[in-house]
Amino acid sequence: MSQAARQIQQESNSLHEKEGKYLTFSLAQEDYGLEILKVREIIGMMEITAVPQTPEYVKGVINLRGRVIPVIDLRLKFGLEAAEYGERTCIIVVEVQSEMGPVQMGVVVDSVSEVLNINGDDIEPAPSFGTRLKNQFILGIAKAKGTIKILLDIDRVLTSEEMAGLEILGG
Amino acid sequence: MGWQNVSISKKIVLGLGLTLVLLALLGITSYMGVGRLVQDAQSMIQANKLDGLLAQREVDHIKWVDKLLDYIARGKTKKFDLQTNDHECGFGLWYYGGGRKDAERMVPDLVPVLKEIEEPHRLLHQSALEISKSDQPFEVFESKSRPNLQKVQALLQKARQLTKSRIAGEEAVAATAVSTQRNIMVIGLAAMAFGLLIAVFMSRGVSKNLTGITQQLEEAAEQVATASDQVSSSSQSLAQGASEQAASLEETAASLEEIAATVKQNTLHAEECNRLVILTNEKTREVHKSIRATKASMETIAQSGDSIKKIIKNIDEIAFQTNLLALNAAVEAARAGQAGAGFAVVADEVRNLAQRAAEAAKTTDDLIGETAQHIEIGSNQIQETLTKFYDMGDSAKKVNQLVGEIASASLEQAREIEVINRASKEMDRIVQQNAASAEESASASQQLTAQSHQMKGIVDDLMSMVSGTANGKRQEKNGRPLFRGRMNSMRQDLGIAPREKNVLMQEHPSGEVLPEQIIPLDGDSFKKS
Amino acid sequence: MTDQAPKSQELREGLEGLALKVVMLEEGDLPGLGAFLTHLEKIQATLPADHGPEVALLFQQLEDVGNKLILQEIAPVAQAQELLSQGVSLLLTWARENAFPAESEPWKVYCRGAQELGVVKAEKGVPKSEPEAEAEPEPAAAMESQIWEDPELVANFIAEAREHLEGIESGLVHLEQDPTDLQAINAVFRPFHTVKGVAGFLNLPQIQELSHELESLLDEARSGRLQITAPVIDLILAGVDRLKDMLDDLQEALSDHRPLQRFDLQDIKDTVKQVQHAGAPSAAFEPVESVPPPEETAGADMDQALQELQAQEKAPPPVETPAAEEKAPAPAVAQPPVAQVKEQAKEVKRPPEAPAPASAPEVKAASDAQMPATLKVDIAKVDNLVNLMGELVIAQSQVRQNPHLLTISDPKLERDLAQMSRITTELQMISMSMRMVPIGQTLRKMVRLVRDLARKSKKSVELHLEGEETEIDRNMVETIYDPLVHLVRNAVDHGLEPTKERQALGKSPEGHVWLRAYHKGGNVVIDIEEDGRGLDRDRILAKAQERGLVQPGEQLSPTQIDHLIFEPGFSTAEKITDISGRGVGMDVVRLTIERLQGKIEINSRSQEGTRFTLRLPLTMAIIDGLVVKVGKERYILPAVAVRETLRPAASDYFTVQGQGEIIKVRSQLIPLLRLHRLFRTGNGDMPPTEALVMVVEHEGKQQGLLVDDILGKQEVVIKSLGESFQKIKGLAGGTILGDGRVGLILDLAGIFALGQA
Fold first, then answer.
1. How is domain C379-435 classified at the architecture level of CATH?
2. Which residues of A touch C733 (CB under 8 A)?
3. Element counts in chain A: helices (H) and strands (E)
């Protein structure tokens, strides 16, 4: 399937179709959700080898059981203030669809919360007013357990033009 | 005034002397006169004896010459036994022995004669020898023996005459006895006259001197009496003062005793204090030790807290990892779809447990943190306490030191006081002695007064002995004012206030002090003495 | 033949193994059947040369039955299996007694059974299946979803089919030169058959259909009814191209989960019919004839046979095991489930000796009886294995460096650890070598290319391949393909003169192109040589001056002039043909080779020819690297590039206003690059006199790189940083260092470029 087709398909999906399990995590006191099927695994913080000539939010690469995968700091990616990595800081390894096929990437988040089942009824479209995040990064806003979770479209977050830019920059 | 000035004893000695000289002259004249008589008598005896001796010797020699002639005559057939040595013959023995000297002493005129005799005598005796030896004995006799015999006989004749001249003065002896009788008579008479004269002179001079001296003696006795009165009274006051002094000294000594006692007590207290301070120090050390022990155990608690913290961190870490595992399991379960639903529940449970563990760990950690904080505070306080303790220890040490110093100072003080005490006792003793001496001198001065009065009586007696009437006039002449003025000036010189006389007078109101007693001696004689 | 006895011993053992497999066979036991066929093939390879015709027939029939069983083309399965066991026991008797019991009862029983199953007329089964295939599209469509149910199987099929097609291509090229070579025909025919069979099994009707068409065409030729002519070859090649397209489509469909495209096969079918009718009026043929065709090839030219044999080798029955994973519970088979394993006659290693499936007496096949068994393994698994081996080595070094462990002085522990490290090192080496593949496959791809080029440019070209067995890293094979194509194209298009010109020059009319691969000094060297006109240095120089690459009057050595063609955008072709002059230029060739840590050299003589020499490291996976410290980061420099390491004296260090820093190394001035600044590691710059300068060389230029320290030298496994970082200048990749962290490997070309920027 082509990227375009996938996009069309996604856009045609009603919010109800977004219901399912999400991995929630927090980032600067805000809760976010990631589609569980995008998540490969969650690992604790480990030493990251910085890669020169990359944007600031690209923290570098890590050794994930013999594989070298890039790591993105989501705070920096979202333009939030950088934070010290602590005990609760985690790397969520996600598998995103890039133009070159599935790619595993690490995403640094403040802490990982839980796996939540979110009902379609609880999902609302992303508000149109400006948030820190570009609207296209957001699948929707979910209410769960009394808080608001921002459901991220991690494919877009990690394969957006910025990432392309990273390549240009690197190239 | 030559005689006048000669002392009584000299006048007496001179008068008696002169008399004795006359007596001696008398005696000497008598002795000598008798002596001469005796001498004359003895010389006559001896000269008779010598005359005899000499006459013998003359005979001897005539006999010897007879023998010699006989010898010659017999022609030497007979043994020769004549004395040929001049020294061995009778005459030679007398001549060369003492006889000649006694004779020469008795009759000095014999000396030349005797001298002359020696040569012929020797030649005589020699001629004998020569005859014996010579063949012509006679001629030798005629030439030698004879002349010499004649010369010796002549000389012996002359010596006899001289001796007989000595015996010849009996009429001169009688004349000497008569002149001796007369001289004794004259000298006796002169000595009697002279003695009488000297006696008159002497009695006159002695009585005159004695009178003057006695008068002066009287005056002096009076003055002595007065002075002794004064001495007596001041001795008394001295005695009194001394006893007063002794009393106050005793008081001082008593106070000193007290001080000494106090100081001793002080010393004891200081020592006690020192002991207590040392005790306190020990206690402090113990307290210090226990504080330190407390501190150490608090530190141990803190360390244990740290260990617990580490363990809790571990637990927390495990919980975190478990949480991650559970999340990963949940992810896997979600991937497995419906088949993983059950597993998802389990994973959720595990996650819950992990979270509870994490929370519990956190709570515990907080508690431990609080504990640690309290321990920290406690530790600090203990530290502070310790610091203060150290300060206290310093002060205690200082106190200890000071108390020690006080104690030693007290001891020193006590020693000093002891010394003072001894000194005061010595002083007391001396003052007592002083007082006694003053008493003694007071009584002595009273005695003196009494004796001066007695002396005055004796002087009066003497006066009356010297001359019974001269007393009254002399009293009129030497008035009181004169005396008094003198006394005053004298007092002033001694630094005694004049008014004290009254005191003295009042203090001695007894009739012992008579007005006469304080009348001084005649000013002139005062001056003279 | 001197070692007859051991051979027969071996043969007997092999047959006993075969018998065991037959006994174990169950209905639908595809892995078992696959194993059986593989084993059979292996035995055939060890067959003594003097076996009788019955034996050959027996082998042929057994294989046929086995194939048919897999393809489910044979009716009562039980009976077929019975037949197999009878055949095998016959073979055993033969092997024991050293004489075929042609008159015995079992043989007769077997022949009867074979007849009943229609195996005797084996070849008849092929045309018979035709209508089946034709008829299949309908059910296939219904079962389309089946493809996706086992994508792994399909992916395997694609890879295998492509391999077969490549074999077909190179076989065809030879066939073209000797159209009568039956061996060659067979070598081309068999792959088609295999592809057809598996495609049928996998419900790929179109592929099955097309391969069937081509197979039948070749069958005609095999039976001598059809003359192999150039148009026939072209037709087949067109068919092969179409099949390749279909495979591409299949692969795409597989990854994108979309339905297959439909291809129009009518044109090919028509042509096939046409050709069949034209070349062979009579479609009937005797199957019996075709069974022992190899015998007819007895007098074939040796050289030809060589090529054919190679091609034929490709033919061995495809491994049909894939099906097993889907269907078979495979209880009785002692084979691991992983077994997409085909014991494969190693085609390249010993192509000359490989015997024809049916006995070829003159080929001394017996001499390589111990053909090593090989496995075909999913490359991803090998990669994974290599990765894990790297991990294992790292984990081991971490264990060994554990401070607690260091305090223990136990001789036994020491020994055990040493033993472990020896084993792991060996394991790593072995796992590395597993990625090594013979280069022959790549070289053979050039055969068709040369043919096509020659035809298009109307030149007569002979391609000589040498050292096909040379092993090279699998990853590298793919990468060097494009540069090789380019170089071959250039050689044919530009290097070789047209025939007439050659003749005029007194050269042989046909041009020669040599592709040689060999190992030399720890490198793989590939020569591309032609005997053409050589490089025209005057023109190169003129062009370079025109482009401003060379200043007029600049004196260049011939080699330097030759190397100018590697400059970007440099092309000397006067007219752009559709062969050369498009796509990559020589600069890209060079870049690609250098990216592989390799080098390219030119050796050219006017009118005599040109030789391009590619020097490549044995493997891309491991490089010898120096671990350097820059700030808190560690980087790895390829050790080969490092000339020397020094700490410059203050007197040897200069700054040039606006030009940067320079150090003097033995009277040579070398520009200094600070890696701190280049990579903005954000650490304070050290004065060069306190740091280390590593003098590195790249493309003949030297640069000094300023680093803090050298931490050691070690062989590191290169790992991709992933697509995101693919294009970062100065980084060639990453690796896992001893402490488990990722270290970045420096790319000198990129660093030099950065340094000049």
1. Orthogonal Bundle (1.10)
2. 68
3. 4, 11
